Amino acid sequence: MASNKTLVPEAKEALNRFKMEAANEVGVNLKQGYNGDLTSKQAGSVGGQMVKKMIEKYENDMKGSN
């Protein structure tokens, strides 16, 4: 079962900023709070952008530690 609980509660605000930044980059208008009016495509593009940026950061961190 999926859960959307933040594993590190202190990171919640940073994650929200990250989500808003990713949404802006792919042209999706997010608002604070409930965004149930988004299409699956819009929500998926925001999530996909977030994953893409996380992988990019991880790869850069790995490159820097070698």
Topology at a glance:
Blueprint: H1 12-25, H2 40-65
Helix pairs in contact: 1-2
Describe the structure in your own words.
This protein is mostly helical. The protein has two helices and no strands. The protein has helices spanning 12-25, 40-65. Helix 1 (12-25) packs across helix 2 (40-65). 5% of the residues are buried.
Q: What's the short version?
A:
The chain has 66 residues and is mainly alpha-helical. The protein has two helices and no strands.
Structural class: mainly alpha
Order of helices and strands: HH
Distance between the termini: 37 Å
Query: Helicity range of the residues?
Result: 55-70%
Shape: globular
* CA gyration radius, whole angstroms: 14 Å
Largest sheet: none
Q: How many strand elements?
A: 0
> Which oligomeric state applies?
single chain
Instruction: Please report which band the strand proportion falls in: under 5%, 5-15%, 15-25%, 25-35%, 35-45% or over 45%.
Output: under 5%
Low-confidence stretches: none
Mean pLDDT, to the nearest integer, reads 91
- Tally the helices: 2
